[in-house]
Amino acid sequence: MTMADQQLSRRRFLQASGAVGATLGLGGVTAACSVVGTQGGTFNWMTWGDHWIQEQLDAIEASDSITTNISELAGNAEGFAKLKEVKGQLDKMSGDALWVPDAYNKEGLIEAFDINELEVASQLFPFARQFPIWTTPEGYLGYPFGWSPISIYYDPANVTGDPDSWEVLLDPKYKGKVVVENQPEEIVAYMARAAGFDQPYDLTDDQLATVKGLLEQLKPNVLRLAQQATDSVNAMISGEAWLITGNIGNEDRVKDGGGPEIKGFIPKEGTVAWQDAEMIVKEGENKALILPFLEKSQQAENIAQNFLVHGRPLFNEKAYQLLVDQGEKDRADRYHYNEAEDILGVSVLKGPGTSTEKSIQLFNEIFG
Amino acid sequence: MSTEIAGGTALVPPAALDTEGGGRRLRRFAPFLPAAFILIGLFFVPLAIMFVFSLWDTNENLDVVPRWSLDNYINFFSNTTYVRSLGKTMIMGAAVTVACLVTAFAVAYFLARYVSRRWARLALLFIIVPFWTSYLLRVYSWQAILGEKGALNQLLMGLGLISEPSRLFVYNDMGTFIVLVYVYVPFAALVLYASLERFDFTQLTAAQDLGASPARAFRHVLLPQIRPGLITACIFVFIPILGEFLTPSMVGGASGLLIANLVANFFKNALIPEGAAVGFLIAAFVLVLLIIFRKYLRVEDVYTRG
């Protein structure tokens, strides 16, 4: 090959590279333009997997041309940190209980709205439109969605004595038979409840030392840390786990999956609970789409379907009536669907606390 | 200015090269720009950012605040669990690497020496077939195979070797080890095969004709010649294991977690500087490791000798 050939081939190579680059660039710009140009519009939503059902999103897209770009939310702390970074790149955010006022609102990330302006809000239990933690002079901070206390579930064929306390998780008899979700802050929080502490997200150093002792007892019993709720349920179905922690409704999930008849209870020491909301991101570029979307997505028919698919109570009262009409009263009542006010009233709600960092460090120290 | 000589070759004076060659040299390096961009923009710059973050702190509001200190590193090294996790990850990485090399060497040696090239390539294709499915699915499958009601336990119980399901192979370090070996053996096999394929096996016979025992011939004739392949295989297996998160979390149980799981926990809970410090420590260790490997490996070896 002569020098001239080499130069020619190099030039050709560079030209070809340039052409490929230009094609890719143009393709990207075209794709971006098509998204921007969509009628109705697309908004960006960071949420948990149980907040939406594809079939419902498709229906809203067909009727209102509103499409969603969903990114998975693993936890409140992660979501909060993410929104602080990306701000206007997200339009709608899901968050839990005290995270809404104490983190998102305090940081000025979300926009309050008049919940009563939404027709669909009249389908909510009245108390759900008046949670003091979400009420501000500017309006309501989030649209109430679902809730559940963290409960313990056990297989009565293997776990004897009708347990009613967190202590059952620490019993050496159940070594390697417990599966808990990998949520460090929550595990520390319910171990704090087990120790009798009323403020599990605001623990002092002495209290953290007590919790550390309980975590050390818990660790040998933990078979594995489930990455998501379905992992815990599957462990129960397969018989690998005799005890799991989780949301209301695991009895049916395990039974539906072909597992044993299991029982559940809220520990007598008290528990932690979540109640989540859909928030409007203040700087969201497509935030105008959120209220119209909520108006459609939160209709009782959708919420009833969500309940049947994901199996934990929600705040839509009309959906409860629909479930009763559909012959699902037994299931709804077993899931305490219409007892939110009572159960949440005696639970510690999830929220950011003063001991968040230390709690996570403590968890990592034991399970790391 | 140039001078024509016989044969048509042009001699260009060095001074002319200097003046004309600048632009040409620049053009010559143009093809390296994408790689340079990837290396600098997507590796060195993020690494530098990660290092800066590791020297900062998180406040109660989960904000990263630029309070410069070495606290994250001090906390790491003063916490025995963290140091133990790091040590355990190194040991796991070393054990898996050795197991992969032994397993892959046996396969690659057999294919290179006793199987025709055509059939060997087909066999190698089968070795990489698992890569056509997602990593997550493969690890889930292992969870099903090694679990209490899994295929392995059924087999062992069917053979009468155990009377009740065993948890020896899952939700512990053993589970992590088995699955990591499975995941990384193909990498090692491909590299070692490429190395052994170029080896002239008559040299082993010649060494034995000259009085060397098979073991001695293997050690003094074969191993030195496939050293670049062995080192490359070590790099391909050991280094990714330092960042393994999925396998330990799926089959490692509460006691089989590795250092990457710790990093993930920090990031998942918005403790970015703490996670960055551990991440940077792993990166620094990998860098040191590569420098050590570099001493024994010339880049051209990879191409000329596999």
Task: Please tell me about this protein's structure.
The complex is a heterodimer of chains A (368) and B (306). By secondary structure, chain A is α/β, with parallel strands linked by helices. Chain A is built from 14 helices and 14 strands. Chain A has helices spanning 3-36, 54-64, 76-86, 99-105, 184-194, 205-218, 229-238, 250-256, 290-297, 300-310, 317-325, 329-334, 340-345, 356-367, and strands at residues 41-47, 66-72, 92-96, 110-111, 135-136, 139-140, 143-149, 151-154, 178-181, 222-226, 243-246, 263-265, 272-281, 348-349. Chain A starts with a helix and ends with a helix. In chain A, 47% of the residues are buried. The model of chain A is unreliable at 1-8 and 23-38 (pLDDT under 50). By secondary structure, chain B is an all-alpha fold. Chain B has 2 domains: 24-49, no CATH class; 80-304, MetI-like (MetI-like fold, Orthogonal Bundle). Chain B is built from 15 helices and 4 strands. In chain B, the strands form 2 sheets. Chain B has a two-stranded antiparallel ribbon with strand order 1-2. In chain B, helix 4 runs antiparallel to helix 11 and helix 13 (259-268) packs antiparallel against helix 14 (272-296). The A-B interface holds A 10, 13-14, 17, 74-75, 77-78, 80-81, 84, 103, 106-107, 176, 182, 184-185, 219, 222-225, 227, 238-240, 352, 354, 356-357, 360-361, 363-368 and B 27-28, 30-31, 34, 58, 60-63, 75, 79, 81-82, 85, 147-149, 167, 171, 249-250, 252-255, 257, 261-262, 265-272, 274.
Task: Write the topology of this structure.
The complex is a heterodimer of chains A (368) and B (306).
Chain A: H1 3-36, E1 41-47, H2 54-64, E2 66-72, H3 76-86, E3 92-96, H4 99-105, E4 110-111, E5 135-136, E6 139-140, E7 143-149, E8 151-154, E9 178-181, H5 184-194, H6 205-218, E10 222-226, H7 229-238, E11 243-246, H8 250-256, E12 263-265, E13 272-281, H9 290-297, H10 300-310, H11 317-325, H12 329-334, H13 340-345, E14 348-349, H14 356-367
Parallel strand pairs in A: 1-2, 1-3, 9-10, 9-11, 13-14
Antiparallel strand pairs in A: 3-13, 4-13, 5-6, 7-13, 8-11, 8-12
Helix pairs in contact in A: 5-6, 5-14, 6-14, 7-8, 10-11
Chain B: E1 3-4, E2 10-11, H1 14-29, H2 33-54, E3 57-58, E4 64-65, H3 71-78, H4 80-114, H5 117-128, H6 135-146, H7 151-158, H8 173-197, H9 202-209, H10 214-225, H11 227-242, H12 246-251, H13 259-268, H14 272-296, H15 299-304
Antiparallel strand pairs in B: 1-2, 3-4
